[in-house]
Amino acid sequence: MLSAGGMVPGAGGLKGSLVLIPKKALDFHDFHGTAMDGGTDTELFGGGVTCQLISSTLRGRAAGKASRGEVGEEANLEPCLLLKKSLLSAPTGEERFEVTFNWSMELGVPGAIIVKNNSDTEFYLKTITLHDVPGHGGAVVFVANSWVYPQAKYSYNRVFFAADRCRRRAARSTRS
């Protein structure tokens, strides 16, 4: 069910979460000052890291070029207040952030995501999960397991694909 204007229903759009490990959490020379500090990495939210969804079902409008999936608006990470820093995450350094996408269901089901690191330090991105995606029947999960360096070090966007899309693509290629 869509709200007025075709936007995803709920408080402000399509909700998601990211699990990542900031580089400082993996600094073995300063264990007490990194993994045990009890805070979150504040430079990663508020524009430090942005995400953009890419439609798996609707093609973008690229003049004279092969079109790709329609790209949504950039969304900033938000601190996850419920799972700030639990005892389980302290040894691993994992942090969870929330993100809310302004995503119209007219764009279809997201199949890929662009992640831009606008901060000064890299982080290890584990997963991105979109919760309760209408038209998909549940969650869409992007398994990254990849370092994301500051945007200034790239001449291209970091794109991660939904896990179920990757499995279907691999299954098709093994059949041929």
Automatic annotation (TrEMBL):
Ranges for domain PLAT: 29-162
InterPro entries linked: LipOase, PLAT/LH2_dom, PLAT/LH2_dom_sf
Higher taxonomy: Eukaryota, Viridiplantae, Streptophyta, Embryophyta, Tracheophyta
GO biological process, one term: lipid oxidation
MF-aspect GO terms: metal ion binding; oxidoreductase activity, acting on single donors with incorporation of molecular oxygen, incorporation of two atoms of oxygen
SMART domains found in the cross-reference section: LH2 (SM00308)
Name of the protein described by the UniProt record: PLAT domain-containing protein
